[in-house]
Each structure stands twice: as C-alpha cells, then as structure tokens.
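Narrative of activities, Objective 1.

The group set out to show that a structural description can be obtained from nothing but a protein's sequence at a throughput compatible with the screening campaign. Below is one input-output pair from the validation batch, recorded exactly as produced.
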Amino acid sequence: RLASSTVSRSAASGAINLITNRPGKVFAGNGTIEYGSYGLFRATGGITLPFSDSLSIRVAGLRYSRKPLFQDGAGSQNLSDGRLSLQWTPTARDTVWAAVTRAIRTASRIENGFSFSFLAAPAVPLYLRLVGDGGFTEEDMIGYETGVRHSFTNHGSLDLSLFHDRYNDLLSVEANPVFVETSPTPAHLVL
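Output recorded for this entry:
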C-alpha cells in the first residue's frame, strides 16, 4: 500500500509501505518460480509453521538473477533475501511479533567496470564522467523488526512497530575534484 510523504522526512516524493506475510495459526506455504528473457530467474517462497495456537514462525526467501542485457556484460543483477518471523498471540486481542531479514546484492559489471562521459556544458567545455572503480563489494542489509498489536474491537486496532536496519557497503556516487584533461583536444574540464 502507498503511504504519504509524511512517513519519512527524507522521502522526496512519498514512500511505499510493504507489509510482509506474518506467521499464522495454520501450516501454510507459498512459492513462485519465474523464468524470462536475458536469463531472468526469480524464485520466492515461504512456509508458516505453527507450534501451538498462540506461537508460530514463518521462513521466507527470494532469489533473483538476470544475465547481462548488453554484449559487454553490463546490466546483470543478483539479489538474495531471507526472512525469519516469529508471532505470539497471548490473548485473542493481543499479538506480538519479531522478525529478522537479510538481503545481499552483488555488483553487476556496469557497477564495477562502467565508464561514461558526456558533454554537459559546451561553452566551457565541461564533461561529466561516471566511472565504476572496480572496488564494489556486495551490498548487505540486516533488518530487525518487532511490534505489538492490540485489537480494541473487531474493526479497530492499534499497532506499534520498531525497525532497525543495518546497511553495509552501499553503492554510492561521489564527485571527484574538477580537473583539466588535454586529450582529446581541445583541453576541457571533467567532473
């Protein structure tokens, strides 16, 4: 479901609130497998295991990969994600849950070996250049969630959720100092 931009002050134009399946009271599972052009492969799955009427866990995962879109190897993608959720329902009106998620994205060739220049200001002349430095490692995220829900009536409830995400080795675009390049002629600025 979509949320307004008031969800986060850093959201430039809004936010998307994805609500994952929580563990339930019955044994259940789901899964999908998709194949497509350019070596697209996507598999998702999850299983809910109830231990009692009030305690259950859910294990879910995703694997996504795509071969390069271009002959030079650019455009490949690899993503893995896993989630473990625990839900406890001590009373008919109260629910407590906790979850941990881990996601890993590997670098594509475009991020490691990319080089692109274009003339941004002909009058100067100023070129903008994007270069992959070859030092990209896997992006890694570990997320933690916990929450509680109290149902006041059959049509009204109140949730309190806490989230904490740790990101490591995120891809970033950083500007280097402007320098003068003399080849090819004429001399020009590069940012």
